Amino acid sequence: MRALVMYDRFEMKDALALVERLLPQFEQLGMETLSTKSWLLYGAVLKSLGRVGEATRAFRRGLQSPVAKRLHWLQATLLHNLADCYILTDRPIRAVVLLRKAIGLLEEAGEAGAIETCHGHVLLGETLEAAGRVQKALEHYRAARDSFGELEMPTWSAYASLLIASALMQLRRETEAAREIVAALPLLEAGEAVLEGRVAVALLRESVRRGRVEPRALRELLVVLRR
User: Fold this and answer.
1) Is pLDDT above 90 for 161?
2) Would you say 165 and 149 are in contact if contact means Cβ atoms under 8 Å apart?
3) How high is the pLDDT of residue 1?
4) Would you say 42 and 16 are in contact if contact means Cβ atoms under 8 Å apart?
5) What CATH number is given for 71-152 in this structure?
């Protein structure tokens, strides 16, 4: 769809106008699959434009479709995006419920949903951590790290390791956090993923060498990797 190309190029307002024109046509013609995918795209564009309330309604509308109920990957993607809207509007408990459901659907899809499952674990972990449930967040970060490793995605596996380290630091388990950092840094450097964060990498490496993790450097590196 041309709207999807526009979205990928960040031509948000043009994409929005196109989807708003096509959606009623798809629904009028009974083209349920295209209609449901368009609700997903519509919500994603609205969310990117900061119109989170409207995006929330779009994702909910997509979830009402029989197609979303039949195609688990599509339902999981809608749930994931709706959960993100709840996170943005400070409703983490609702987000957690939706993310757990999305992960369950993606796990049922097996290999086809493997990467999305990993990202779901990361987002669920971040949501739980923000809600103060750090120990539970650790479980999802570890699931993401191990799965990214199995999928041979070293940069993402390293990112998950740093999330684990950050959570462990909150729990005052610095020795374990240092082990996660030591495992993560070579993977990041090998993948050239830290050009912007090389100062933070150097600070982290030196602090671990001296036996004390530098929390500020860890936070800065995570910010760089999230971009």
Assistant:
1) yes
2) no
3) 39
4) yes
5) 1.25.40.10
User: What are the respective helix, strand and coil percentages of the chain, to the nearest 5?
Assistant: 85, 0, 15
Contact 181, 210 (CB under 8 A): no
C-alpha 87/C-alpha 166 separation (Å) is 20
Given a contact cutoff of 8 angstroms between Cβ atoms, the answer to whether 126 and 163 are in contact is yes
Q: What is the dihedral of CA 46, 19, 96, 63, to 10 degrees?
A: 150
Contact predicate 126/86, CB 8 Å = no
Tokens (6 digits) for 121: 């674990």
pLDDT in tens, 14-52: 777 888 888 888 888 888 888 888 888 889 889 988 999
Read off the tokens for 197: 């964060």
CA-closest candidate to residue 123, choices 152, 153, 65, 163: 163
H/E stretch holding 94 reads helix 92-108
Q: Largest alpha-carbon pair distance within the chain?
A: 67
CATH 1.25.40 fits 1-68, yes or no: yes
Query: According to CATH, where is 1.25.40.10 located in the chain?
Result: 71-152
- Percentage of residues of the chain with pLDDT beyond 90: 38
Model confidence over 70-100: pLDDT tens digits?
A: 888 889 989 999 999 999 999 988 999 999 9
Whether the CB-CB separation of 113 and 90 falls below 8 Å is answered with: no
pTM: 0.72
